[in-house]
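Preliminary data (for renewal application), glutamic acid complex.
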Amino acid sequence: MSTTAVTAPVRNYRGRFAPSPSGPLHFGSLVAAVGSYLDAKSNQGTWLVRIEDIDTTRVVEGAAKDILTTLEAYGLYWDEDVVYQTQRHDLYAHTINNLNNQQLIYACHCSRKQIKALGGIYQGHCRHLNHSQHHSALRLIQQHAICQYRDLIQGEVHIGQDLAHEDYLIKRSDGLFAYQLVVVADDIDQAITHIVRGADLLEPTARQLSLFNQLNHTAPQYAHLPLAVAKPGFKLSKQNYAPAIAKDNPKPALLSAFEFLGLAPSPELVELSIEKMLSWAIDNYSLQNVPKVAEIQISQKLNSQATLFTQINK
Ligand code: GLU
Ligand code: ZN
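Predicted structure:
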């Protein structure tokens, strides 16, 4: 078993797990849940769950409930009421107003096809066209381009200049608030200090950091966990048949998640209760021991007690 972490706890730590209810939890999302939970709890912090159901086109009925029941089966209890993005439209509208008052928003009438034809990165075509904002997609004038930031696990992260400077969407043409906007509005509103999530969000983080700046708010610390992949470049997802994790037999997957996060549990750990397994993990977890790679390939043996991981270098 690994030794107890020596780093001093962070004060007033507030972390969160923010699943999109597009299906049941699979091993990849369990890693994000357990990783954010252990990081919070090993810092005597508060751990929140936020259901990211803003993109109603991707929401699967019953998935949010199923995710919460699964978290409970894994002993991952949240500390405050669960927040649902679909119930927070006022907060997002308020955030847009704030940006609008700074004259940083413009309506864009370009189609995805047009932008793709111009190379895929938006070049600010509508910035000075003064389209009406009514029923339009909205973009934020990028004044705080972030090309580089420091991640607690992945180290120095670099973002392409074009992408960093893009006036990105904060409201979609179908009227839905965009992910970048709501995630930052929520993280500010919930006073999140640490964000531990999958490395598939390394690039969007640069935009989120720029939005924190724009809203005059200190950004949280970011720690991007290696992404669980089926093969290099392909994250576990419903599309590649990552199975939903078992609710009736949580211990093997929990043990695998501990290993994935750089803990060294002995196989006998599964003889303990879920609660005791988690408290062992809280005592032994250290962010320093999380593999500093962007992806880890999962073998076929998932959900058995002998999961094998192949590490893939960045
Ligand atoms: N809802 C996002 C997802 O499921 C995660 C967003 C976040 O952690 O910031 O991929
Ligand atoms: Zn446009």
